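Appendix C reproduces, verbatim, an entry submitted by the partner laboratory led by Prof. M.T., so that reviewers can inspect both the input and the predicted structure.
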Amino acid sequence: MKVGDLVKNVDDPAQGIGIVMEVEIDMWGQQHEPPGVKVLWARPVWFDDDGGSIMYHDELEVISESR
């Protein structure tokens, strides 16, 4: 997964399509946690101050890769 990929939420497809804004985000400062991905959603359920939602890789499915 990389910046610019279009993704959907595998657990909640009604959330729509999102675009990956950032990858390899440190999740909770824990070494055993997998890195997160920040996604800008068309219809966000929740979001940070910049409008992106941080999620785990396994919660997302790439539907179109960026070039």
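The chain is about 0% helix and 40% strand. Additional entries are available on request from the coordinating office.
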